[in-house]
Design brief:
This protein is mostly helical. 44% of the residues lie in helices and 10% in strands. Helix 3 packs antiparallel against helix 4 (104-121), helix 3 packs across helix 6 (147-166) and helix 5 (131-144) runs antiparallel to helix 6 (147-166).
Length: 373
């Protein structure tokens, strides 16, 4: 019998996709051996009393062999994977610990999205997550809010599942390649220099609000970046401001424009932070109303800075670097404002406001004379 098996095995040496061999037993019955050559594992074989059982096993080996050739492994059984709740908890801890781009506000948003997914999908094993179920939930989000909002929810869940693949909990992200909704071009509201002057005049009775507004106008920094701005990040000799951590996770350096430099040189240094937390939302909206500005928000000061730079001829690549965008797509909205010629960024597009900011020791009285040259 052993010789017969050896001879049969020799005849099937070039299996290719595998084979099933009849193996005669001493009892007179026949056993069925499935075997295949697998990359990195040599010959894999197993014997069964029924041909159907051998065929099922060979089919499994053939699938694994194919996946191995393309560099993948079969997905583990759903019951062998961690639950969605465990995944989201570990993933958010990872984001909080490792990602430089995550601010407290961003993490709070992620946590809200994680709770939403748990409520909709349940605390199921992540191996049971199906693309069709997720697509239906995303469709509901799009209908009740917007397509871009649905994209944000998808980004969190898909990111968590990709992290699960890297950690060995899954072999393939079940949401990989799922179609995103079209993003909106983005809201673009900016001020003319005379409008900016009126706004600054209305902010003059609140020194911290004035400085927040002026800093945003002269730098294009996000509100959170201004809140985290430290004195050590400002180089008065080189006229630069360094932002070590931005929304995108990348640091950047921007020009310290002359008008802002004069304001900062007169601003008292009471701690590590230049301004600290922004607590003037209501006061800012009041100032906007008194200045005759409608539908204007603090973030639009950043758009104003970008628009002034674009109209002064700053090229898209430089503008993208100033604003801290990873791609040029975000600055395309300003392209229609720019003339054909290109100029350097420093000193271009920034109106020269002549501010004489005098602050008393208790900083309760502020005198600001604002005017355009």
């Amino acid at each position: 019998m052993d010789k017969e098996i050896t001879r049969t095995r020799a005849r099937g040496r070039t299996w290719g996709s595998g084979t099933i061999m009849d193996v005669p037993l001493k009892s007179g019955r026949t056993s069925y051996r499935a075997q295949i050559s697998s990359p990195g594992q040599g010959i894999i074989r197993k014997q069964f009393p029924e041909r159907e059982m051998a065929e099922v096993y060979l089919g499994k080996l053939q699938k694994e062999r194919h996946l191995a050739k393309i560099g993948e492994k079969p997905q583990p059984k759903p019951e062998d994977t961690i639950t969605l709740g465990q995944l989201l908890t570990e993933y958010l801890r990872y984001r909080e610990r490792e990602s430089r781009a995550n601010t407290p506000g961003t993490l709070k948003t992620y946590k809200g999205q994680a709770v939403y997914w748990l409520e909709r999908l349940g605390d199921i094993p992540i191996g049971e997550i199906r693309r069709a179920d997720v697509s239906a939930i995303l469709q509901s989000i799009s209908e009740h809010t917007s397509g871009p909002t649905a994209n944000r929810y998808l980004a969190l869940l898909s990111g968590a599942l990709s992290w699960a693949v890297n950690e060995g909990h899954l072999e393939v992200n079940p949401l990989r390649g799922i179609k995103r909704n079209k993003e909106n071009p983005g809201r673009l509201r900016w001020l003319e220099p005379r409008e900016a002057e009126r706004l600054l005049n209305e902010c003059q009775h609140n020194p911290r609000l004035f400085m927040f507004t002026a800093t945003a106008l002269y730098t294009g920094m996000r509100r959170g970046e201004i809140e985290r701005l430290r004195w050590q990040d400002i180089n008065f000799e080189r006229d630069t401001i360094t932002i070590p951590k931005s929304k995108t996770g990348e640091g950047r350096t921007i020009p310290l424009e002359a008008p802002l430099k004069r304001l900062l040189e007169t601003w008292s240094r009471t701690g590590e932070l230049v301004l600290g937390s922004f607590t003037h939302k209501k006061a800012f909206m009041t100032a906007c109303r008194r200045a005759g500005l409608q539908d204007f928000h603090f973030h639009d000061l950043r758009h104003t800075y970008a628009s002034w730079k674009a109209m002064a001829g700053v090229d898209p690549l430089t503008l993208s670097a100033l604003l801290g965008h990873k791609t040029l797509a975000m600055v395309k909205r300003y392209a229609h404002l720019a003339p054909e010629h290109l100029e350097r960024a420093r000193g271009r597009g920034i109106p020269e406001f002549n501010h004489n900011l005098t602050i008393t020791e208790n900083e309760e009285e502020v005198k600001v004379n604002a005017g355009l040259d």
